[in-house]
Amino acid sequence: MAQRFNWLRSGRVITGLVIVTGLVLCAVFAPLLAPNDPTEQDILAILVPPVWLPGGDWAFPFGTDSLGRCVLSRLIFGSRIALTVAVCGALGAMVLGSILAHIAGYFGGWVDWVIGRVVEIWLSFPPVILSLILMVGLGAGLQNVILAIILVDWTRFCRVLRSDVMVVAQRDYVAAARLLGFSHWRTITREILPATLPLLITLMSLEMGVAVVVEAILSFVGMSVGAEIPAWGQMIADARADIYSAPWVLVLPILAIFVTVFGFNILGDGLRRTLDTRLTQTERA
């Protein structure tokens, strides 16, 4: 039983869990945590500095923007958009990419060749440019942002997992499962998938960080949520005009994106190091 929870002893996992848990709590309890309405404008409190700077006001702990909106409240509510896109986008890309990766790596032959060529063609397009092209075709909106991330980033999972599946498929216990009459579906789900799961968890965590950055880029150019919904990329775009007079309005959403991506990445790396028995044995050796 104790071995099942060895991953909790990793400093990387604990650090990542703390950051991700904080993000989840902010997203779930945003109405309770936010000191003000994130969309409420106060023309008498424009560009109020944070409380740690001279002239700060505890009514706006992180200050206000050029429209008198509370920066802290907008950061907290913006975590909802970031978390929604991170979970839904990464999960969709993982499902599509991992299914094709397992099919290509398990069956090989012409099936692997066809899927491999599709991945190569898809990867020939720069991810950010392809996302922008898809958003132009799909239109602005959170659902379309998630769909664009899925359509662009499924290749990350497919390309990396395919080679891992090919290695696992050659092992003796997989051959024994075939000799026992296991169906292809049962062989993949019962014998191959558990072996590739640590890598899948790592890729999922990394993709969640990538999804947060992509959503920030799309909201920065006005192709994500509407102006009435707080989003970190939108906050950065609004803060460009006040970068010299009120730098905190620009720095704080950038810091929120950095910490979130760092949390997802370090969590994935920690889980990879503790769950992957092959990597653990290599480090011990």
Characterize this entry briefly.
By secondary structure, this protein is mainly α. Helix content is 71%, strand content 0%.
CATH architecture: Orthogonal Bundle
**Topology, number of strands:** 0
Q: What's the pLDDT, averaged over the residues?
A: 84
User: Helicity level, as a percent range?
Assistant: over 70%
Keywords: Cell membrane, Membrane, Peptide transport, Protein transport, Transmembrane, Transmembrane helix, Transport
Main location: membrane
GO cellular component, one term: plasma membrane
Protein name: ABC transporter permease
Describe this structure in words.
- With 285 residues, the protein is mainly alpha-helical.
- The protein has one domain: Orthogonal Bundle (MetI-like fold).
- The protein is 71% helix and 0% strand.
- It has 11 helices and no strands.
- The protein has helices at 11-28, 30-33, 71-107, 109-123, 127-138, 142-169, 172-179, 184-220, 232-239, 248-275, 277-284.
- Helix 6 packs antiparallel against helix 8, helix 8 (184-220) runs parallel beside helix 9 (232-239) and helix 8 runs antiparallel to helix 10 (248-275).
- The longest helix is centred in the first third of the chain and has 37 residues, at 71-107.
- It is elongated.
- The two termini are 24 Å apart.
